[in-house]
Amino acid sequence: MVSEEVLRTHLQELRRGTVVVASLVALRRPDYGYALLQRLAAHGFAVDANTLYPLLRRLEDQGLLTSEWNTEESRPRKFYRTSDDGQDVLNRLLDDMTAVRSSVTELIEGAER
Amino acid sequence: MSSLTDRYVAATMRAVPAQRRLELADELRGSIADMIDDRTASGQDPASAEREVLTELGNPEQLAARYSDRTLQLIGPRYFLMWWRLLRLLLTWIPAIVGVLAGLTKALVDGEPGAAIGTAVVAAMQTAVQIAFWVTLVFAVLERTRTPLGLPEWTVDELPEETRDRQISHSDSIASVVFLLATIGLLVGQHFQRWTTDDGTRLPALDPALWSFWLPALIVVLLATVGLEIAKYRSGRWTWPLVAVNAVLNVAFAAPVLWLLATDRLLNPELVERFAWLRDGGTVEFARVAGAVVVLVAIWDVIDSAVKATRAAR
């Protein structure tokens, strides 16, 4: 039986890149930090706030997200949206996830034979 | 008094680049408020909700480092191996050389042989600390500025030829060479840096007459032993020819010393005259102890080399 610690590190490694994918997908509908965090959590992506907020800034610096301040509501909030470049990168990432998925499936089937 | 949130935001902003502070502060403050609101809406009291949210966000300096994409390590994987290799390279030779030079200077130029070993050790240690500090500082700066060094990539041609483990370690060889050179330094040094007697006259410890042949001969044997150390290091292990040379060199050193001790020609006769206990049979006692030490060291060294050669031949 492997230890919880080992299992947790592997799961963490596996999940790391998927937060970017999930954020780029979710932000095709503009949203602010905490609302995005909750949406991701509701869909099974448990991200820490102190990981997600800096990640959004980084994706914005890389030009994959655009942002806009919304001052109409009770408090001003910064809304992020996936940019055209972000969409391109997202398509590539999704293709790659599909490729990984099908490779794993092939491997599993190959092993069973 | 400012709220915990104000203090948290201020602490985070202190560690991010100035040009982004204002906007980041507004956004972070808003995010914290959103998180607190969410908790109070489900019935939690505001004070404990604030505490919980800030605890969840964690150490503000760490959060700031994530915002500004800054490394939280002194030297990361990019430079670590290079740093470690350079440090080992510099630390193996330079402190030892500086130590020997400082010790010899203290003994020969300043005329204080008693303080030579202490001076040598202190100088070597200070040099080692200085090297470690400056090398690490330079690499830590490189890490922070992410300077590409443009060094060639590793290639298979760099693989060491040797596939077996070395029997003769780097540090052992260096220690031996340093010890041999220090012994030569001592033999030469005792002549110029003399023993100070009570009446202020200074005398060499060994008989100056020995310089006509025996002392140069012993120094040649010691230099040959340095050569043996280098040959041994290059071969990586004890071989039977090396054991034979080692035995010859040990005899070539021990035999003259024993003979000189036995015939009472090693110590400076003038020095013997000055000290009552040497005059009254002390030289015989000295010859016995020194002779025993020389014989034991030589025998031990030869047996040790033979055992290691047997082990290496397996």
From TrEMBL, chain A:
InterPro entries, A to Z: Metal_resp_DNA-bind_regulator, Tscrpt_reg_PadR_N, WH-like_DNA-bd_sf, WH_DNA-bd_sf
Signal peptide: none
Transcription regulator PadR N-terminal domain segment(s): 27-91
Positions of transmembrane segments: none
Protein name per UniProt: Helix-turn-helix transcriptional regulator
Source organism per UniProt: Micromonospora tulbaghiae
Lineage, top ranks: Bacteria, Bacillati, Actinomycetota, Actinomycetes, Micromonosporales
Automatic annotation (TrEMBL), chain B:
TM annotation in the entry: 86-109, 115-142, 174-193, 213-231, 243-262, 282-303
InterPro entries noted in UniProt: Perm_prefix_1
Record key words, sorted: Membrane, Transmembrane, Transmembrane helix
Signal sequence extent: none
UniProt xrefs under NCBIfam families: perm_prefix_1 (NF038403)
This protein's name: Uncharacterized protein
